[in-house]
Amino acid sequence: MRTAVATFGFGRPDHFGRMLNSLGSCPEVQARSVDVYHFLDGGPGSEQAALRKVIVDSEVPFTEIVARPSNLGVGRQLISARREIFDERGYDRMVLIEDDIELSPTYLTALLALSDWAETFGDVGTVQVWNVESGTQEQLHPHLGQVELTNRHFVTYCITKRVWNSIKDMLYAYEARYLLNCRYSHRPHYRIRWFMRRLLRKGRTSPEGDLLNPPVEAVSNPFPSVRWRSTPTSQDAITSLALYLAGLHRLTTRVSHAHYYGVEGVHCTPELYDVMGFNNQGWWQWSDAPSSFTMRYQDDEGRWLSSVYR
Questions:
Q1: What are the Cα distances from residue 197, in Å, to 42, 170, 188, 202, 231?
Q2: How far is Cα 103 from Cα 260, in angstroms, rounded to an integer?
Q3: Is 266's pLDDT higher than 90?
Q4: Helix (H, G, I), strand (E, B), or coil: what is residue 203?
Q5: d(CA 55, CA 21)
Q6: What's residue 168's pLDDT?
Q7: Residues 106, 114: contact at Cβ < 8 Å?
Q8: Residue 44 and residue 183: Cα distance in Å, rounded?
Q9: d(CA 297, CA 143)
Q10: First to last CA, the chain
Q11: How confident is the model at residue 277 (pLDDT cuts 50, 70, 90)?
């Protein structure tokens, strides 16, 4: 498949440089078998010149720098990038990487192999090889090929054009109604939650073709209820909701091939970083990547795994 890798930057050139150097360790980037695009948001605090210097000085191959002339904000930036990669440039597959994730050299090899495997199922949406699973190299290595359902953060994942076409109308409606005329940080949360509640009432659709069809006990609704004061209203939340309503499952390898270091950011604080378990991420700098995958729905004691949106 024709694959684009999209990175996202706004300020924090040190964060961006750490991510970019790790991306450059992936053989697919060095061989240019994927096209790398850098999306740099604009406006006050964007530090676009510093980020451009980081990109050029790194000597990591790339296709284009897409520098926004003004500030789009996180929501419009991520939705626009998917629009441009899929709708306008015609790529078959897209890997999104935010600026606070450090990748193993096996990251793209594992991710694209998982994507190829997942595309044989009509009910799989996004895939990722970033997870929060504690353990040492010796403890985790035997589980490299295990895959689980997930509702975790979208800090880095892969999505195909087939899946994007299934969910984009909901993302575009969200963007048009709630993001175009206000700053992302001032988006109308109550109105967005009303939008989410109304969509949930419609129920899920059923994809066709060969299906993964996980046991119903293993499937977790990312939003079993929409609380007026606390339910997330981000574009990530809408993406998760859109996937769920389209009958599409999110997959992740049990064992991570990346390390999330976003202790402080738009949606994270040091306290939240600890609460979410990010301070207990296990070994991730692998020298090999899985070539085959098996689903894991239960833990070693036979209890169903579950994953809430977080």
A1: 33, 13, 15, 9, 11
A2: 9
A3: no
A4: coil
A5: 9
A6: 98
A7: no
A8: 13
A9: 13
A10: 30
A11: confident
DSSP letter at 268? Answer: B
Name the β-bridge partners of 286.
none
Which positions ≥6 away from 196 have C-beta within 8 Å? 223, 226, 231, 233, 237, 238, 241
Q: Any idea which residue has 């993964």 for tokens?
A: 212
Query: Which DSSP letter does residue 305 get?
Result: P
Q: How many residues does the chain have?
A: 310
Beta-bridged to residue 93, according to DSSP, are 3, 160
Name the strand (E) or helix (H) holding 110. Answer: helix 107-118
pTM of the model: 0.95
Amino acid at site 200: L
Structural domains of the chain, with CATH = 3-295 (3.90.550.10)
The string of DSSP codes covering 34-98 is: SEEEEEE--STT--HHHHHHHHHHHT---SEEEE-SS--HHHHHHHHHHIIIIIIT--SEEEEE-
- Dist. CA 56–CA 72, nearest whole Å: 24
Tokens of 181: 């005329």
Q: Which residues, 6+ apart, have CB-to-CB distance to 64 below 8 Å?
A: 37, 38
- Do β-strands 124-128 and 249-253 pair in parallel, antiparallel, or remain unpaired? parallel
Reported as type and span, the H/E element at residue 192 is helix 189-200
Alpha-carbon span 98 to 123, nearest angstrom: 26
| 185-230 confidence digits (pLDDT tens) | 999 999 999 999 999 998 999 999 999 999 999 999 999 999 999 9
Tokens of 112: 């694209």
Measured CA to CA, the distance from residue 310 to residue 297 in angstroms comes to 19
Residue 249 corresponds to which amino acid? H
45: left (phi over 0), alpha (psi -120 to 50) or beta: left
